[in-house]
Amino acid sequence: MGVFQPEVSHDSQSSSRSYALRWELVNLRVLSLAGVISIAIALLILLYVHGQSSKQFVLVIDGQVQALETRESLLGDVLAKEQISLQPHDQISLGLSDKLEDGDRVVITRAKQFSLTADGETKTLYTTEGTIAQTINKLGIELKGSDKIFPSLDTTVAANMEIKIVRINKQTVERTESLPFRIIKTADPSLTKGTVRVAQAGKPGVMIQYIEKVYQDGELASMRMIGKEVQTVTKDKIIAVGTKPIPIPKPVVAVKTSTTTSKSTKVSANSTNVTSKAGVDFDYKKVIKNVSMTAYSSEEPGIGTRTASGTRVTEGRTIAVDPDIIPMGWWVYIEGLGFRRAEDTGGAINGNKIDVYYDSLSNARNFGRKSRTVYVIGPVKPQLD
User: Fold this and answer.
1) What is the pLDDT of residues 347-382, one digit of tens each?
2) Of 103, 135, 152, 247, whose CB count within 10 A is highest?
């Protein structure tokens, strides 16, 4: 009896191969996917390790440079770990939330507090700029014209520095100044000696002065004259003084006795008052004795430099008189003082009183009160022949 052999068909063998092939393909896909996942995980691990590795960077604080090393990622965390604090007005080159990279350079500029006084107000401010010029430019403060700033613009800003801006304003005004006229005496041969005539009336001139006033923060600091011009020309007063000799009267033939002739001669001699003082011979109208003499000065409060006659007070010439006693403009001779001219008056100068002008108040006070004899001459000052 023979052994029964199972029948093996061609379809059975083909099916087995197909199943093995499908299993192999599926397994290959699974292996490929696992490999990709493994690689991704490895990359993540490498990135994490790289992120946690140490980084070197340079930190500059107010010009001080230092090299540091850290494993932190964010700049804010790095500064916190290094115990470096920032004030509100400090300046930093990177943001605190920025990621710090290896080799980065971080610059921190500390803000300096200072006080600024300008336009009547003082403020406390902060700056990270270097000089005062850079600081006020950053703040938008404008310097105009001749404005001044202390310290100077090129000064380096320091902590707690006081900076002051002084506003300068200039104003030009006009001032009117009177120009006194001169009194010029000229010889006139058509007039007899002792006779005077005003040939031309005097008229003072007018000068316009341009004054520059400088104000600092609204207050007047200085003033100076920057120009001037004559608005009205001065017209001098010209006085003609006679030089023609006085005619000598013809002698009268005596018809009476010699006694009468002698008396006539005496009367004629007394009709002219002539004296000699300070080496000058001159005629005078009258003599006033025991004249009360005092002195005054323009340095006294309320006393100006202009006289009642319009002239400028002059030591050695000007006196104040009572015009009813001595006419204005007349010359006199005062014993012990010399020739003076009546150019001024005064409320207390009445009668036989004269006030002598001195430039110095101390000299006027030292003059005191004196009594002198005064020769009243006339409008023309005697001259030495």
Assistant:
1) 889 999 999 999 999 999 999 999 999 999 999 988
2) 135
- The rounded radius of gyration (Å) of the Cα atoms in the chain is 57
CB contact at 8 A, 372 and 334: yes
CB-based contact 243:193 (threshold 8 Å): yes
Token pair 């002051």 in the structure block, residue = 164
Short-list 343, 330, 344, CA closest to 375: 330
**How many of the other CB atoms lie within 10 Å of CB of 317?**
16
The torsion angles phi and psi of 32, rounded to 5 degrees, stand at -65, -45
Q: Tokens 């030292």 appear where?
A: 366
Half-sphere exposure of 53 (CA within 13 A, CB side): 9
**Spatial distance between the Cα atoms of 50 and 71, rounded to a whole number of angstroms:** 10
For the whole prediction, is pTM greater than 0.85?
no
Q: Per residue in 15-30, pLDDT tens? A: 666 666 676 777 777 7
3-state secondary structure of 176: strand
Burial zone of 357 (CB within 10 Å; 0-12 exposed, 13-18 middle, 19+ buried): buried
